[in-house]
């Protein structure tokens, strides 16, 4: 029974779901976005099978794998049968399109469940993502939002997405806002580098627009790196817009972003401040810690803008020539200007 399918074909299937039968740790590191993990072997079982394979060879490893899997047949059937009632097509994949996914597809297809095996498995998907990102400039263009900390770049991306205009929020994907305070904004753990790239691929691949808004970033965001192709296209070929805002507006936005929305506890801010002693000096940090103890967050935000953020990022702001400079003090008005610019650029592409 040949139920193999290529990734491009699988992505075009209607009412389809991808099922990852690899172990939970493999799934956690990277996966097809929105796939469901139904592991044939758990992490411990996979490790045991792998050890036997290295020590005693393939046949013994297969026997051990079957021993583990045979105890789960009923539960696996119930899970796949339940999925078949919600999805017309089930695409199963493992690491390389081998025995794990192949045995599942053959067995459950014989029980009447409509399933496909992804040829090449996760490896084929990973290669597809790499190729897609490496050739990003052939199909997409970036409208790059620049601006000092707190001007509203991230808020702009969120607003644009709500209005149906694509805005790729790399900081949200990376779960880090940059700088020593970057991790404070998010509750979730950061993704692996591979998962970071998969999430970028998934977002862009689902875009019907030629132009995508993106925030100007340094190469590294927290624990991950922006892929070279994305970074170079953004910097060298982007349509650059500078957003500006008053100090008071920036302070208010920073307090909302770091304190009001996803706040953890003062010790997290304290730890970040301690890392700035060498840069800002003991006197300044001691003063900021006093304000932290009295919960005067606006004062801390203003001091950091003036003494840390602006000196840190001003050089990168000044090195670009901008197509537009827009004030964000009146946020809705600024967003209307961005949407107008986007619509004009999209029309220009259609008329080429």
UniProtKB/TrEMBL annotation:
This is tRNA 2-selenouridine synthase. One of its GO terms (molecular function) is tRNA 2-selenouridine synthase activity. One of its GO terms (biological process) is tRNA wobble uridine modification. The keyword Isomerase does not apply. The lineage of its organism: Bacteria, Bacillati, Bacillota, Clostridia, Peptostreptococcales. SMART domains: RHOD (SM00450). Keywords: Selenium. Gene3D superfamilies: P-loop containing nucleotide triphosphate hydrolases (3.40.50.300), Rhodanese-like domain (3.40.250.10). Residues 12-134 form the Rhodanese domain. The keyword Transferase does not apply.
């Amino acid at each position: 029974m040949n139920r193999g399918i290529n990734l491009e074909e699988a992505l075009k299937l209607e009412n389809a779901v991808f099922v990852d039968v690899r172990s939970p740790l493999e799934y956690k590191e990277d996966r097809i976005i929105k796939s469901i993990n139904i592991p044939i072997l758990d992490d411990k079982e996979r490790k045991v099978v792998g050890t036997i394979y290295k020590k005693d060879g393939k046949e013994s490893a297969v026997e051990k794998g079957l021993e583990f899997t045979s105890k789960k047949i009923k539960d696996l059937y119930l899970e796949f049968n339940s999925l078949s009632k919600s999805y017309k097509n089930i695409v199963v994949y493992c690491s390389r399109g081998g025995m794990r996914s192949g045995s599942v597809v053959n067995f459950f297809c014989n029980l009447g469940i409509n399933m496909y095996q992804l040829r090449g498995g996760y490896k084929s998907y990973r290669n597809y993502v790499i190729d897609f990102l490496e050739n990003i400039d052939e199909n997409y263009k970036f409208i790059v939002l620049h601006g000092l900390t707190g001007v509203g770049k991230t808020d702009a991306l969120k607003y644009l997405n709500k209005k149906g205009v694509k805005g790729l929020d790399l900081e949200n994907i990376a779960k880090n806002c940059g700088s020593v305070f970057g991790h404070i904004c998010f509750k979730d753990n950061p993704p692996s580098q591979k998962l970071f790239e998969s999430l970028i691929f998934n977002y862009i691949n689902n875009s019907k627009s030629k132009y995508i808004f993106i925030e100007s970033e340094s190469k590294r965001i927290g624990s991950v790196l922006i892929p070279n192709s994305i970074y170079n296209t953004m910097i060298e070929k982007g349509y650059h817009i500078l957003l500006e805002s008053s100090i008071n507006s920036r302070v208010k936005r920073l307090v909302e972003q770091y304190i009001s929305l996803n706040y953890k506890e003062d010790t997290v801010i304290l730890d970040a401040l301690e890392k700035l002693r060498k840069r800002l000096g003991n006197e300044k940090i001691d003063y900021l810690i006093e304000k932290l103890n009295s919960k005067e967050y606006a004062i801390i935000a203003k001091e950091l803008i003036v003494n840390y953020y602006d000196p840190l990022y001003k050089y990168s702001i000044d090195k670009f020539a901008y197509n537009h400079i827009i004030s964000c003090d009146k946020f809705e008005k600024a967003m209307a200007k961005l949407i107008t610019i986007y619509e004009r650029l999209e029309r220009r592409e259609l008329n080429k």
